[in-house]
Amino acid sequence: MSTNKGLGRGFASLMGLNDVDELTRRDDLPKNSEEQQQQGTAVNALQDVLDLELTDIDPNYEQPRKHFDEEALNELAESIKLHGVIQPIVVVPIGQRYMIIAGERRFRASKIAGKKTIPAIIKHYTTQQIKEISLIENLQREDLNPIEAGRAIKTLMTEFNMTQETAADRIGKSRSAIANTLRLLTLNEGVIELIEQGRLSAGHARTLVVVPYESQLKLALKGCDNQLNVREMEKLVRDFLNPKPKTKPEVGNSIELKELVGNMQRTFATKVSAIGNGNKGRIYIDYFTKDDLDRICSLIEEWMNVKFKGEEE
Fold it and tell me: Three-state DSSP class for 76?
């Protein structure tokens, strides 16, 4: 993370932790009160790292991330079995229990690994601080899918009265990146589901923002599951928005065909058109009301009766 842009300088700074690596070296903790006196203020910071029972900890119900990759969790669980939890989670006390502010993946993976306790840093925040920190921590770590990130940014802006520029500063991202992520929330719900399922990338989805809402899902399904790359998706959208004019069939241009069309228009008193040439084509007789249709049918029947009567004679 960048070190010169808002909270982009890192989660440790956001949480008020000057050296999160130092806090993870739990084997270096002083073993008795005499050592504590010698270590002075450094010990006071380290005393917040405790082993908490997993059963005493609850996830944050406002956690912006809703989807956790099961395969990635299992891989993390295997690592925890071998090496333990390297970086403590961060919690706040809620009554007799604790709520996670940062580290829910480690919490879930520790359960899978069969651990009973987990190292944790206990912090004290207001309700507003908890929500803001939870949102920013997840956004900084880029652990969210694009839709979760968009919703988290929108919540951050709405509840804390931030502009896109302010939110970009707080998260440590560019304003254009924030704007592009927010645009995904305007997409068709079906498209949003494809993004959440990991079947459509943010790059593919952004090409659909300019497409009418009702047509977005149809195009998205053509590009999802890596059927098209982003460049091909862009071309698909361009072709959809700017379709090539259909080549019209050759209209009959022989003198005889033109005369026939003119005679039929006068006879039927309606529009008549011919497509084709002197050898092959179609003749269309248009009607615009029921009276038109009745009149055309009567004329045809009259012509047929005359023709059949002549043949009988």
Answer: helix
> Using one digit for the tens of pLDDT, what is the confidence trace for 18-76?
433 333 333 333 333 333 333 333 334 444 789 999 999 999 877 766 677 788 899 99
Q: Is 104 a catalytic residue?
A: yes
Structure tokens at 291: 């009276």
Q: Phi and psi at residue 187, in whole multiples of 5°?
A: -75, 165
Q: What is the DSSP string of 248-267?
A: PPPBP--HHHHHHHHHHHHH
CB distance 272 to 285 below 8 Å: yes
Distance from first CA to last CA of the chain, Å, rounded? 100
Question: For 189-246, how does the pLDDT look when each residue is reduced to its tens digit (9 = 90+)?
Answer: 999 999 999 999 999 999 999 999 999 999 999 999 989 999 999 999 999 999 887 6
CB 170 within 8 A of CB 161: no
Residue type, 124: H
Of 71, 59, 110, nearest to 88 by C-alpha is: 110
Please choose, from the candidates 106, 96, 125, the residue with its C-alpha nearest in 3D space to the C-alpha of residue 16: 125
Instruction: Please tell me the distance from the alpha carbon of residue 177 to that of residue 247, in angstroms, as a whole number.
Output: 42
Counted residue by residue, the chain has a size of 313
Distance, CA of 305 to CA of 310 (rounded, Å): 8
Q: How far apart are CA 213 and CA 20, in angstroms?
A: 46
Of 35, 53, 75, 104, which one is the catalytic site residue?
A: 104
Max CA-CA distance within the chain?
Answer: 133
Amino acid (one-letter) located at 71: E
Please name the residues in contact with 262: beta carbons below 8 A apart, sequence gap of 6 or more.
Answer: none
Give the number of C-alpha atoms closer than 13 A to the C-alpha of residue 285, restricted to the C-beta side. Answer: 18
Contact 228, 222 (CB under 8 A): yes
- C-alpha Rg value of the chain to the nearest Å: 35
- CA 22/CA 310 separation, integer angstroms: 110
For the record, the structure tokens of 75 come out as 């891989």
